[in-house]
């Protein structure tokens, strides 16, 4: 127990530390509150359910273990140790203030023994974990923690703020836990005998030597451990350690539908372009970002995992999703007092957070959001910055202008005539009915712009038509009534053009699929071969009043095979499947195409690439990249992906997206490089071989 002067000193120091920490945390809350509250998807509803989910996600550490299992294990040492130390510190504080008889109960019995054992073991694990992380950053110099040469860095970051903060936090944890273990060692020595529940403290006591005069050492350890907490508290809101509190809040405020379902990555926050009072489209400054986007900056743990999986970053381009969040964080910290007082942020995002080159390098693949252990939404930030550049400043890559013009004038980014939408049916050996010719259709085949106009994608569309005919599906197409979904425009930041195209499609679809809202028994299904069309129809169009039953063609074909309406694929070729970002990561479908490719189980099988499913590497076409030149870097994204596919030894790369197919095909080299075909083409070829036999 402390002496009376020690108690008074501690109370005074604790009051000062807590007060300054309160000021810091309050300032963070006020700064985050400066963000826009214009949210389409609810963030504040069902708070008890959200809080429970956030606690489970935080304690489960599942998002951390998505990547880097070894590093994640050491992080778990530190995390779970600190969770337990919340209780340890409370008990230690009580030991300093109450007579020994008051807390003697916790020192005896199984419960007390388990508590002491946990404190002892977790203390060691925390020290091991922190030493690992300090060595990783300052001794080994893990390259995964560094930014590329082309990446924009905040002035504070360039001056070494991250390393300094990491060192302060690391030394604080080492000192706090080290002093605590040392103090317990002295206390065991003071008691005069080893404590079987505290093997580490007992070992220290043996080194120290037993004796009644060892209580002074406990005082030193107590003050060292708890005194460091008091010293660190005012700095806490400025440190990376704040993610301990902001990350769970970030989890709690993730995007959810009213029924609790997670909102897919592919669904963007809409802009009400018809609101004449709206003065800002997108984000040019910090306060234009939404509240959760500012919270992201404080939740970010600066681990660089998002940048390590970003296809633009991996191929040496200027984009680093991690740098975006880190730069936001240091700018917020630098201007926290002014922004908390209501003053505007002093400079636009493009001057400190991210460069224009990096903004346009993003493929919107969602890999950054998928891997982030604390739920940051870097991709959504980038799309919002694009919206400002396109709609407010008219500043975007010149190569996008023809695509924008084509979508606006002819309803497709190629700028080809509307009356050519059915040209893909010319020479086809089956009849493709339109909705006018077959008004009683059950399935609407949404062909899409690529499937209508691009020669390579037309091969997939024709294969799909033959398969639908072979399976006896009662289907129809919109023909000339179909127009671009607007996905390229929206991902490029041209929300107004997207709104025009999507509104036209919603009107046509609502009229065509009128039974959808009238009779649940006659709901009509929409099938598309393009994941980007699928994502727009399924995730974006409900924002405009268009809710449809939409499936990707691999899902539909898989269902037809399982129902026995189509024969399983039979192939002697070895195949590897490239997961389209907008089918897999954005919408969670990984199994249907693989089941189709596995077929009758007698072929050469499906060979997985190292990066597959949720960890799949982008083809480089998303985010309107297909319509512009790739930013400067060390390699083309498609070339990197195709090299991975070739390394599997597969003779065929199976695609489920017309843009993936086009990008990977352009990356094919000479010689034994695999060919690229859509899953529908492979299934159609299998049926043709069977019919020919």
Quick tags:
four-stranded parallel beta sheet, mainly alpha, Fumarate Reductase Iron-sulfur Protein, Chain B, domain 2, three-stranded parallel beta sheet, 693 residues, 3 domains
List the helices and strands and how they pair.
Blueprint: H1 4-32, H2 47-60, H3 69-97, H4 100-107, H5 109-140, H6 155-158, H7 161-191, H8 199-208, H9 215-232, H10 243-252, H11 291-299, H12 305-309, H13 311-314, H14 321-334, H15 336-340, H16 356-359, H17 367-371, H18 378-392, H19 400-410, E1 443-446, H20 448-453, H21 455-470, E2 475-476, H22 487-491, H23 495-512, E3 525-528, H24 531-540, E4 549-552, H25 553-562, E5 575-577, H26 591-598, H27 637-647, E6 652-655, H28 658-666, E7 675-678, H29 679-692
Parallel strand pairs: 1-2, 1-3, 3-4, 5-6, 6-7
Polypeptide structure, described:
It contains 29 helices and 7 strands. It is mainly alpha-helical. Strand 6, helix 28 (658-666) and strand 7 form a beta-alpha-beta unit. The model has no long low-confidence stretch (mean pLDDT 94).
* Percentage of residues in strands: under 5%
Put simply, the count of helices is 29
Q: Name the quaternary structure.
A: single chain
Radius of gyration: 30 Å
Secondary structure category: mainly alpha
What number of structural domains do the residues give? Answer: 3
Question: What is the CA–CA distance across the termini?
Answer: 91 Å
> Runs with pLDDT <50, length 5+?
none
- In the sheet with the most strands, the strands line up as 2-1-3-4
The rough form would be described as: elongated
Fraction of residues in H or I helices: 40-55%
């Amino acid at each position: 127990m402390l002496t009376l002067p020690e108690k008074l000193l501690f109370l005074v120091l604790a009051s000062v530390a807590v007060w300054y920490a309160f000021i810091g945390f309050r300032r963070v809350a006020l700064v985050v509150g400066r963000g826009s509250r214009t949210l389409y998807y609810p963030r504040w509803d069902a708070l008890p359910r959200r809080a429970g989910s956030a606690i489970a996600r935080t304690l489960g550490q599942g998002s951390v273990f998505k990547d880097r299992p070894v590093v994640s294990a050491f992080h778990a040492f530190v995390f779970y140790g600190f969770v337990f130390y919340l209780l340890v510190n409370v008990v230690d504080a009580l030991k300093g203030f109450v007579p020994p008889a008051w807390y003697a109960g916790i020192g005896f019995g199984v419960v007390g023994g388990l508590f002491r054992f946990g404190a002892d073991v977790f203390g060691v694990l925390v020290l091991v974990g922190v030493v690992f992380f300090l060595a990783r950053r300052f001794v080994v110099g893990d390259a995964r923690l560094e930014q590329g040469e082309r990446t924009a860095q905040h002035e504070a970051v360039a001056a070494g703020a991250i390393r300094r903060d990491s060192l302060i936090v690391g030394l604080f944890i080492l000192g706090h836990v080290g002093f605590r273990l040392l103090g317990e060692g002295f206390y065991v020595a003071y008691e005069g005998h080893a404590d079987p529940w505290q093997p580490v403290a007992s070992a220290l006591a043996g080194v120290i030597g037993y004796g009644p005069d060892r209580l002074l050492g406990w005082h030193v350890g107590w003050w060292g451990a708890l005194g460091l907490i008091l010293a660190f508290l005012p700095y806490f809101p400025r440190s990376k350690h704040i993610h301990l509190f902001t990350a769970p809040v970030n989890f709690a405020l993730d995007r959810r539908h009213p029924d609790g379902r997670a909102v897919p990555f592919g669904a963007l926050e809409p802009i009400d372009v018809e609101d004449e009072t709206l003065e800002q489209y997108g984000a040019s400054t910090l306060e234009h970002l939404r509240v959760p986007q500012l919270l992201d900056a404080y939740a970010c743990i600066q681990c660089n995992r998002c940048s390590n999986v970003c296809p633009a970053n991996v191929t040496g381009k200027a984009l680093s999703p991690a740098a975006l969040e880190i730069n936001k964080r240091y700018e917020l910290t630098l201007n926290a007092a002014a922004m908390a007082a209501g003053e505007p942020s002093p400079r636009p995002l493009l001057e400190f957070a991210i460069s224009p080159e990096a903004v346009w390098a993003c493929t919107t693949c969602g890999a950054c959001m998928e891997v982030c252990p604390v739920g940051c939404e870097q991709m959504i930030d980038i799309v919002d910055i694009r919206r400002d550049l396109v709609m407010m400043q008219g500043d975007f890559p010149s190569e996008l202008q023809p695509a924008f013009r084509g979508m606006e004038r002819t309803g497709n980014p190629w700028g080809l005539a509307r009356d050519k939408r059915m040209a893909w049916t010319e020479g086809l050996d089956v009849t493709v009915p339109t909705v006018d010719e077959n008004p009683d259709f059950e399935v609407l085949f949404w062909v899409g712009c690529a499937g209508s106009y691009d020669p390579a994608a037309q091969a997939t569309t024709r294969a799909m038509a033959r398969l639908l005919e072979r399976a006896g599906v009662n289907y129809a197409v919109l023909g000339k009534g179909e127009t671009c979904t607007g996905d390229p425009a929206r991902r490029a930041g041209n929300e107004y053009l997207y709104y025009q195209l999507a509104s036209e499609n919603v009107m046509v679809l609502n009229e065509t699929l009128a039974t959808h809202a009238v009779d649940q028994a006659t709901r009509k299904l929409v099938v598309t071969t393009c994941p980007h069309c699928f994502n727009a129809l399924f995730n974006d169009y409900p924002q405009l009043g268009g809710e449809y039953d939409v499936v990707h063609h691999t899902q539909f074909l898989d269902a037809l095979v399982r129902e026995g309406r189509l024969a399983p694929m039979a192939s002697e070729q070895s195949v590897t499947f490239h997961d389209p970002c907008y089918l897999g990561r954005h919408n969670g479908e990984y199994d249907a195409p693989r089941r189709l490719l596995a077929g009758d189980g007698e072929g050469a099988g499906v060979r997985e690439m190292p990066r597959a499913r949720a960890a799949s590497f982008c083809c480089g076409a998303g985010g309107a990249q297909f319509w512009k030149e790739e930013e400067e870097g060390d390699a083309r994204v498609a070339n990197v992906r195709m090299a991975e596919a070739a390394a599997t030894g597969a003779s065929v790369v199976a695609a489920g997206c017309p843009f993936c197919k086009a990008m990977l095909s352009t990356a094919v080299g000479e010689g034994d490089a695999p060919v690229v075909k859509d899953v529908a083409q492979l299934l159609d070829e299998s049926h043709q071989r069977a019919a020919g036999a």
